[in-house]
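Subject: sequence -> structure tokens, single chain

Hey, anyone have a minute? Need the predicted structure for the following. Not urgent.
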Amino acid sequence: RGAGRRAAPAPARAAPARRAGRMTRVAVLKGGRSLERQVSLKSGARVQDALERLGHDVVGIDVGHDLVARLRDAVPDVAFVALHGRDGEDGTVQELLEALGVRYTGSGVSACIRCADKVLAKHHMRDAQIPTPDFFAFTETAFKQLGAADALPAIEQRLRFPIVVKPAGQGSALGIKFAATPADVPGALVAAFSYGDKVLLERHVRGRDLAVSVLAGEALPVVEAIPREEDFYDFEARYEIGRTDFVCPAQVADEVAERAQELALAVWEVLGCAGFARVDLMLEESTGELTVLEVNAIPGLTETSLLPQAADAAGIAFDELIERIVALAPAVA
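Reply:
Had a minute. Here:
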């Protein structure tokens, strides 16, 4: 497996009988304790409904301190990871599933770690010569003990305003702030540090928000997100129905769509993703160039999420999408 999964021991006790030749028991992991809990619950509920329609025996698990016990009781054939944010996208639950010998959907531990840390992902992209907006990243310790604040004027000069300030480890546009002037930077940093101990200062790319979902190593049609009122596709615009218009396939030139898909597949390979993922890009207004912002190893599966829309544009209905994702879960050695 490209994402580097390890061999794992067999479950502690034998699973109940299944229908011959068909995997039927699926544990849907959702909820959890991250700031994306509500989105995860919505994704998980849609997945659970689809799996039930498909005839699977489904066990929904709101992930908490009793996760191991519940997995041992359920003895699933596979775990469908619909757990967004901390614990779900950063390799934590994947590591635990491997220790228990439970096969699971999506990318493996190492790929999840790379995708979840925006700074690490951007360094991998830069090393692979994949275009991503210029950036600098610092920990809270760098500001408190190494005087990083004194370097801000030089950073601001190199990135030029406006600057995007965001936490290194949050998804769904949580904690992102725009600094239009130097006076805005301290407040943006304080806001970003409230979400984690590492922040990313990134050149703002004005243009069109595009996303390319990848399923089993194949790029799906490009989606464009167009916020109706805001200039920025933020958390509320992503998940509140009616806040954003989605166009799929995106109304861009064929060569732009092809380039976006090429970049998405390049990032998929570099970060070692597997199963499914979503790559977010910007099409810069002034240059017409595409740049990659980040990769989501566990993309949303809600009614407003981009992966299901892209799959639908490719002729893959939601239930079929979920069935394919389950089928892609690798066997445990």
